[in-house]
Structures are given as C-alpha cells and as structure tokens.
Amino acid sequence: MGSETIKLPTIDLSKVKQGSHTWDLVKNQVRKALEEYGCFEALYDKIPKPTRKATFDVLKELFDLPLEIKLKNRSNKPYHGYVGQHALVPLYESLGIDNALALGKIQNFTNLMWPNGNPTFSETIQSFSEKLSELDQIVRRMIVESLGVEKYMDEHMESTDYLVRMQKYDEPRSNETKLGLTSHTDKNIVTILYQNEVTGLEVLTKDGQWINVEPSLDSFIVMIGDSFLAWSNGRLHSAFHRVMMTGNEARYSIGLFSIPKAGYMIKAPEEMVDEEHPLLFKPFDHVEFLDFYYSEAGRKLQFALQAYCGV
Ligand SMILES: O=C(O)CCC(=O)C(=O)O
Ligand SMILES: [Fe+2]
C-alpha cells in the first residue's frame, strides 16, 4: 500500500517564460524534484478543459472497440503497439502511437481503428499531444539549463520523437487491491501522464516508500526515464512506479513519452563527468536497449540499464 504521509512536489508550469525570473526559480524546483523523486505533479493550464475532458471520452471509445480491432495496432518496437491480455496484469490494456507528432500518424492510427473515420478522436488526441509536448519541452529545457550544459540544448531537443500511449485499467470489482501495472522505471527521456479521477499510480521514493499519486484533473505527472538519468550521468533519478487498482471504476490514462530516436547514441556530455561523478553508462541506442529489456533475460532484471551498459 502507498504511504499517505508523503506527497509528490507540485510545481506550477503555467506561467513560465524562458529567461524570466520565474523561469529560473521554477527551473530549480524542477531540478530538485527530479533529483529527489524522479517526478513531480505539474500544474499546466495550456490545455483547455474541453480538450482534457474530450480526451477521456475518446479513450473510453477506443478501449470499447472489439479486441480484434485493437490488435491491429502492431509495432516492431516493444510496448509501442497493442499490449494486453497478460495473465500477470489482466486489468491492463494499452495502445501506442509511435512518432505520434509526425504528420499523419494520429490520423493513420484513427483510420486503423475506425475505417470510417473518427475526427473527434484524431482531433482531440492531436491537440492534446501537441499541447503536452510543449510541457515536455519546457521541462527538458529547464533541466538542460540547470545542469549548465546549454551548448547541447539543440542536439538534445532534436534527438527525440514522441510516443503517445493510452492505457485502460479495468476495475478489479473486488475490495482487494489488484496489480494494474508491475513496478518499473520508464526507459525513455521524459514521461508526462494524465489520468481520469480514478487513482492507482504509486511512486517509490529513494528510501523505499510507495507514495500514492493523486493528481487533479488540472495536473500532470512529469517523470524521468532511464535515458535521461544516463544522459545526466545519474544526477536525475528515474523512479520505480506501478499501478494498484481498487474499487469499481476503470482507470484511464494517457502518456506522452519523449523517446530517443533510433540510431541516436545516448551519451552523457563530458561536462557531466568528473571525479565526483564518474561515468555510469557507456553510450547506447535506446531501441537496442528496449530489445534487451524486453528479452527474457532483460525482464528479470531490476536495473536493466545498469546490466545493459553500466560501466
Ligand atoms: O497509467 C499510468 O499512470 C502509468 C503508466 C506507466 O507507468 C507507463 O506506461 O509506463
Ligand atoms: Fe511507467
């Protein structure tokens, strides 16, 4: 069970303008939260309420489609297509849209799911994801600046694509808490999660306590993945997290994942390496790392990145 005593830091990113005094103040809060917890709750008012509400309506419509339709969403990258029907996490289903913000990708996904079209779905997810990618970029700019390695800003910002992944966790219909998603760290750069009012996400603190994450409908969870931990040479933390379900309502969530492009070697800038911070990871390709992580041997490892390319 998660602890009720600790809460994730909440940071307001609605009114930050690069170069302003507020930007600098907030940037330090962001860096501190991501070093300490690996995540925080972000207030961000740039996504209009009707779009946020419509997002849940279309997610419900998506997961209500017959399984054979959802299975059409295939990908050669692990965890990018349809995932579900697993004995270990029977409540969990997800659908991903790879490189979602490239022209036509959300439209193609929509046409695959609804051959007769569903403009409400494609327009809602497009608008939601575009707006949320601005939050991803604000956070990453703040981090790169705060690490003092601005000279890598453009390279870093251009080295990623976005995966949009939509999740449904069925209601367990029991008084017992059931596992919705097993404990893991994300493998990408930054993850931003938005969820309906059904809670269940839990984050592990560095000292081993599970925190119940209880965002409002106006807030987003920003989380560091292993690739950004590696890039920062261990300065940023990537937190273990899981989903635990209780009650009789389904949980829907949508995540925007910034992911290193295939072929791009993730490598900590030399400024991140010094006597106090010896190099932790050899340069690696994210897609090859994912293949390792999802292999039979990789799945059993708690610290897959360490095993894959730890120095
Ligand atoms: O549904 C959530 O809030 C968490 C999903 C998650 O951790 C993931 O997709 O990596
Ligand atoms: Fe995750």
TrEMBL record:
Keywords: Iron, Metal-binding, Oxidoreductase. GO terms for biological process: coumarin biosynthetic process; response to molecule of fungal origin. SUPFAM superfamilies: Clavaminate synthase-like. One of its GO terms (molecular function) is metal ion binding. Residues 159-260 form the Fe2OG dioxygenase domain. InterPro entries: DIOX_N, IPNS-like_FE2OG_OXY, IPNS-like_sf, Iron_ascorbate_oxido_reductase, Oxoglu/Fe-dep_dioxygenase_dom. Probable 2-oxoglutarate-dependent dioxygenase that may be involved in glucosinolates biosynthesis. May play a role in the production of aliphatic glucosinolates. Belongs to the iron/ascorbate-dependent oxidoreductase family. This is 2-oxoglutarate (2OG) and Fe(II)-dependent oxygenase superfamily protein. It comes from Forsythia ovata.
